[in-house]
Design a protein that fits this description.
CATH topology of the largest domain: Rossmann fold
Shape: elongated
Oligomer: single chain
Number of helices: 25
Radius of gyration: 29 Å
Number of domains: 4
Strand content: 5-15%
CATH class of the largest domain: Alpha Beta
Distance between the termini: 33 Å
CATH architecture of the largest domain: 3-Layer(aba) Sandwich
């Protein structure tokens, strides 16, 4: 455990603690923080950090800035007066807080609320049937307890797709105390339906209430207080609400609110509306009315929705923000699972302790998203990387090779995830899809100027369109802006997860992708004219992806020359070896010339590397 001020960095569980409370960190931000904490008090250059965390992948330095911004928010750090992470412009970062080591048995590592027997079920889900969400279940139960004092409540459960919102609600409903004898009804908002049918999820919930063991009571109260709604509750399928439109909407809404409060007077009532981001305006009006009514009621509204990033006019976001401001609701945002919970989830799915290194591998690939965890596990089994030891299902599982040899993204995105991501992409306009596809040609972070180059569009127009996407989509965020060599600035954006980037990359036709890659590489050369050696490695990456072998090899040679000038001889040799490999794709004449020249440059770089090592050893001996 690495300690700094009130924080503790738990290396084994890959999480952060503060004053006994656990803070979940995604794998990459955790890796950045760990590397900085492991080397306190000294400059960590961008190149050193990138080489340490992405040793075999070219990643833009902007990605580091994104993770450092995220870490500063978590740590409560100020870039102007840093207590933890100091930025050294154009060079890198320095961790400035004193760091101490403490044993893992230190009691301050875990919160007292999770000590003892509670800790034993914190991740296993034996009580609730869900892994790693006991804290959230406890929070929901606290709101249920308030119903006894007739305090109505509205709870928004938010989080990205696959984070486990529905699983949490299912687990919460399963473990409700039978002694509470609460009424429970659920309604599902459906994309494309809510726009056409008013009160669609409300009708589903009413149908469940009228069909429940207490259905006679529900029907009697509706008949007396909201007769216009009784027919809807008695239907077993959604009813066309056009039959209700002869009744003024405000009067109908008031009748239903009063009827639901009367039902809650008989016994506590819990209404669940899922995927509220797809709800119709009438359903939102009902939730708003129920939240604002002043009469005491044993009524709880539990709603789930995606992160709401739209403009203030976006109805669901406007509703949530207004209720939060008036303290009429609470929001519970689901974070990714920590590594320990991912391990427990894998153990539950496999029926045994997971094979060595499986949890770490899946955690890195999934970034703690439960849906991604399950999909990646199924993918490993389908690819026979995990196999049963025998034909009997009761036998255990074993891995056939080290997981380092099975990069999931290179083997293709698991089918279930690819289909889910494709559905989300298909809901965008063709122009928006093209922009995201062009962004995927960079890395997990992509600058607006690169999209403009790839699509041959105006950079200002592209930046405005990307800003609009970032406001609406939960898997794209604006991460900052870069100053270009010509003095202008260009915003850059990030994908929330590498799997989204991979699907967008693969869905492009090869020839179209190649043309876009070439345009990006050429634009890089134009932006850094006179200093192109600084970005030669990145240009080579794009040329190689486009199959432009000669230009890729030339760019690598330029990058190697730049490395030699910085006395980074080992890096120069590595770049030249890569250039030599790419030269094998040239025709016979070009290959012979390029190979001869690259061999000569490689030999010089290797000699310089040997000389540098010998000089270092001599200096060490003298010291």
């Amino acid at each position: 455990m690495k300690r700094f001020e009130s924080f503790g960095l738990d290396i084994g569980n890959e999480c952060l603690w503060r004053s006994g409370a656990q803070i979940a960190l995604a794998p990459k931000p955790f890796a950045v923080l760990r590397y900085l904490v492991d080397h306190p008090g000294r400059l960590i250059t961008h190149d050193e950090l990138l080489d340490a965390l992405w040793p075999e992948t070219y990643v833009q330095p902007q990605v580091l800035r994104t993770y450092v911004l995220e870490l500063r928010k978590i740590l409560g750090d100020d870039a102007g007066q840093p207590r933890f992470i100091q930025t050294l412009p154009k060079r890198g970062y320095c961790f400035v807080a004193p760091v101490t080591d403490q044993p893992l048995t230190d009691d301050s590592r875990v919160p007292s609320a999770r000590a003892g027997s509670a800790a034993s079920t914190s991740h296993t889900g034996k009580v609730t049937g869900i892994v790693g969400r006991d804290e959230e279940i406890s929070g929901l139960n606290e709101h249920v307890a308030l119903l006894a004092s007739e305090q109505r409540c509205v709870v928004f459960v938010t989080g990205e797709a696959g984070i486990g919102k529905t699983a949490l609600v299912d687990a919460f409903c399963r473990q409700l105390d039978p002694a509470l004898t609460a009424g429970l009804a659920r309604g599902q908002c459906v994309r494309g339906v809510g726009c056409n049918e008013d009160y669609y999820p409300v009708m589903e919930a009413l149908s469940q209430l009228c069909a429940s063991p207490d259905g006679e009571t529900a029907c009697r109260i509706l008949a007396r207080m909201a007769p216009a709604w009784l027919a809807l509750g008695r239907e077993t399928r959604p009813v066309d609400p056009s039959a209700m439109r002869s009744v003024p909407e405000d009067r109908t809404l008031g009748q239903l609110c009063a009827a639901l409060e009367e039902l809650a007077a008989v016994k506590p009532l819990i209404l669940v509306f899922e995927d509220l981001h797809w709800a119709d305006d009438s359903t939102l009006n009902l939730i708003s009315a129920l939240a604002r009514r002043r009469a005491h009621a044993r009524l709880m509204l539990l709603v789930t929705c995606l992160p709401l990033k739209g403009t203030t006019g976006y109805p669901v976001k406007a509703l949530k923000q207004d209720l939060l401001m008036r303290r009429l609701c609470v929001e519970m945002t689901l974070a990714p699972l920590p590594k320990t919970a991912v391990c427990d989830l894998l153990t539950r799915e496999l029926g045994q302790e997971s094979p060595p290194d499986l949890a770490g591998f899946v955690y890195q690939q999934s970034e703690g998203n439960p849906l991604f965890v399950i999909a990646i596990l199924e993918h490993l089994i389908a690819q026979r990387f995990l196999v049963r030891q025998g034909a009997d299902e009761a036998t255990g599982w074993e891995q056939r090779a080290p997981f380092s040899e099975f990069p999931v993204l290179e083997a293709g995105v698991p089918d279930k995830l690819a289909q889910m991501i494709e559905l989300e992409i298909e809901r965008l306009s063709p122009e928006e899809q093209q922009m995201l596809e062009a962004g995927s040609l960079m890395s997990i972070a992509f600058p607006a100027w690169a999209l403009a180059a790839a699509l041959e569009r105006d950079v200002v127009e592209i930046e405005e369109a990307c800003d609009e996407l970032a406001r609406r989509l939960y898997f794209v965020e604006r991460a900052g802006q870069d100053e270009l060599p010509d003095g202008t600035c260009s915003a850059f954006y990030v994908f929330a997860h590498g799997l989204y980037r991979e699907v967008l990359y693969q869905r492009q036709a090869g020839t179209r992708r190649a043309k876009r890659q070439i345009r990006i590489a050429e634009r890089l050369g134009e932006l850094f004219r006179g200093r192109s050696a600084n970005v030669a490695r990145e240009m080579a990456m794009h040329y190689e992806a486009a199959g432009e072998w000669r230009r890729a090899a030339e760019a690598l040679r330029a990058a190697a020359l730049h490395a030699r000038q910085r006395q980074a001889y080992a890096s120069a040799a590595e770049l030249l070896e890569r250039a030599l490999h790419l030269a094998e794709n040239l025709n016979e004449t070009e290959r012979a010339i390029a190979t001869r020249e690259i061999y000569a440059e490689l030999k010089r770089a290797q000699q310089e590397t040997t000389t540098g090592i010998e000089l270092t050893e001599q200096l060490s001996e003298k010291a």
